[in-house]
Design goal:
- Helices cover 37% and strands 19% of the residues.
- The protein has 498 residues and is an alpha/beta fold.
- The protein has 2 domains: 176 residues, Chloramphenicol Acetyltransferase; 242 residues, Chloramphenicol Acetyltransferase, CATH 3.30.559.
- The strands form 3 sheets. Strands 1, 8, 9, 10, 11, 14 and 15 form a 7-stranded mixed sheet that branches. A 6-stranded mixed sheet has the order 5-6-7-2-13-12, covered by helices on one side. The protein has a two-stranded antiparallel sheet with strand order 3-4.
- The protein is globular and about 55 Å long.
Amino acid sequence: MVEISCERSVTPMLDQLTALDATFLELEQMDEGATMHIGGVMVFDPLPDGGAPALDAVRDDIAARLTSLPRYTQRLSAEHVGGLAWPRWQADPSFDLRNHVHRAAVPAPGGDPELCEWAAEYFSHRLDRTRPLWEMVLVEGLAEGRWAIATKTHHALVDGVGSVDALNVMLAPEPPAPSAEQQSNETRAGWEAIVPHPPRAVVDLTRSGARAAAGGLHAALHPREAFEKSRALAEVIVHDAITGAPQTSLNVPIGPTRRYEIVRIPLEELKAIGHEFGGSLNDAVLAACATGLRKLLIARNEQLPSAGLRAMVPVNIRTASEHLALGNRISSLFVELPVAEPLAHARARQIVERMTALKSSRAALGAATAVDVSSLAPPILHPLLARTLYGTRLFNLTITNVPGPSEALYACGAPLREVHPLVPLAAEHAVGVAVMSCNGSVVLGLSADCDSMPDFDVFVDGVRGGLDELRGLLAGSSDAGPAGRTPARRTEPVRASR
């Protein structure tokens, strides 16, 4: 996920879904193949006395930390969106941690293939909307005494960066102080005990009007900012919506069943690759994915789009003051991946140039403004806009890079070793890539629709090959093999046949 400063003017109510939060619920409702939860598999070393912790110990550890994440004990006021008002987050009177933290085991030998096979099945199932929108599973039976905690959290509850903030709370050695959101909720609860509640319809109408009025007032008081946002929105509409992403076999109807595999690479090596081409770690990931996509389309005898495949790259627009504030604070950049370019170094340099230009443009502001404008639509009409914002005309796939934990984390006394991340698949988007770093290693989590991607291994091998190609191009590499190619190290994909 790219970090770009991009302030938004209207602050949402704490207990009511924003339009962007609701969008991810709407996307699921419109297509049974869409799965809008994020998550991953956190792999831990054995406990000091060996093996995995007991399920009750994991539940007790999580229960002690939930006071810092009150949203995790709240459910939606309505299971479906698209009515006359956005749903609210409200306390779940029947909340029971046993409904959210379960246990599972993978078959022997408990290696990456078995874990990915299990994860693919786990990520294929949606969350129960009658309960708080998250769950965890203690996964036992991993090789070398390791164990894992798999997480699944709905995108309506939290975005990628927010999920890492929550992860830091869940796994911190000691429960942190109450968050600003919790303190605010407690203050509001005190006033609500004194001030009678107005009728629900009045509240919803008032809030909708307040959002529109606040946006209009802000524009009136800050005309230059409003002008910049208008220009940015116009540029996004012209470039991204009117031009459109190419039509490919990656954008077909999909089902709910997933395939999932991982590719590893050392963090410093990935940084060095990005630096070699004048870019970042994220640029190196995009270049490797471009190679994988190129090989997949060639294997399918499909014409390579000259303008490239368009990837949606989420952008974090949170401020420091929004630490532990859940919900979604993201925008997007849309970058063309030059899959028609046959040379790896040329693909990498083109991606660096395009990302550099996008970061210095108004693209992220324009995308954020489009989301803000869509939020002014009545909830009953908003699903149509949600389909447009996440449709195949805008992008072919999502590639997101979420910075992992910056310090050592533990669960039940065992250190976190790595995280296998997951990106949701929207309707007619058959493949996606999530990236996360942890303990000096980067893991690419590659997910795909099972039915429309029977050749998923071609893409995975292509991403692995793309990383090896780029590593081989590193100038002055001391361990380069014949013809300047560095031997493959730690980038082997794991295959989970389904």
